[in-house]
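Hello Y.,

Per our agreement to keep a running log of every chain we model this quarter, I'm adding this entry. I've kept the format consistent with earlier entries: sequence first, then predicted structure.
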Amino acid sequence: MNSARPLLLANALLTDPAARSQQRGGLLIRDGVIADIGPHLTAGVVGPDIAVIDCEGQILAPGLIDMRAVTGEPGAEHRETLATASQAAAAGGVTTIVCTPETHPPIDDPAVVDFVLRRARDTAIVHVHAMAALTKGLAGQEMTEIGLLGEAGALAFTDGARSVMNARVMRRALTYARDFDALIIHHTQDKDLAGDGVMNEGEFASRLGLPGIPAEAEAMLLERDMRLVALTGGRYHAATVTCRASLNVLRRAKQDGLNVTASTSINHVTLNENDIDGFRTFCKVSPPLRHEDDRLALVQAIKDGLVDAIVSDHNPQDVETKRQPFAEAADGAIGLETMLSAGLRLVHDGSLDLIGLLRALSTRPAEILRLPGGTLGKGAGADIIVFDPDVPFVLDAAKLRSRCKNSPFDEARLSGLVSRTFVSGKQVFERS
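Predicted structure for the entry above:
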């Protein structure tokens, strides 16, 4: 299809989470942006110079923005490349990926930021942004050059799945980040308290004979960070809150007016510790899957706006690292291609409405990261998805587009598939 030709997506259920609106109609794309939208746009009112796609009543919404994905490149291309990650993203309705700095070498130098962004422009079919390391070598001891990395294009600063345990280093990073108006995204898990734990601490871990990680390992470090945010005035985002104790800390911080936001992973709002039964290593993630009460509390927190966003926490792991005894297997699950379908579970069971889910998957990530997207407003970039929320399927992980197949939803019954994905007005995915 000629991308220069105007395109009308007609006969769609237009769902704009930014405006919290839903109406039937069409959307006109011209020169890569949304030129018009509304019920007045039908196939019969446009001229022959405009191409028309009939969406057959399916939902049309902004593309998803995934704030947290491990892409592997450079250095771990056997796990994932920017190209394969983008193919998986497009098939899952994700039009923007924000990749973590856990590469080889890590993204702690402006040259590596530049490499990732150039490589993405050459090989990826969706937008790709890079987060830079918060500390050199992801070692947690010496702060990176936040100013220079930001100038090179780093969108935010994080040590990925590693926590900065040194409070003085964290304070200094928050102070410098404040001066550059930069965002710090932190994974909160006290590694000393977590010890050699491999799953959520509790009765179920005891029954499986596995060492547990207490929820306090997350909440205590988050509490420390909130005090440092109050001290420094920095911008802070909690990468993956997973338990009720953390939600209490986050609630107090927001009530106190601190500049903090938070996300949780799709795994933690759709799965719980019981899914590990049978020692399923594809469900071994960090932080670990929690108790069902924690999952329900997280869903309610998204509904209330206490937790701002949902991320895929996409982390490809190969057979050698996952086909191990549970305690020895690597943490991580893929999620780019299944995030929307898994999230629709919450819509189908009445836990969330569709607007609330899409706000957490697109609008709020765009706002937090100060990216375009997450809206169907006129003049916005045409990063758009069309999907049927009700089509049922059984997930076959072998058919997923990621290089690794470590999906916690393998053989799960899901509903909802993306039909088309557009990035800057260009169709990059169509389901056959």
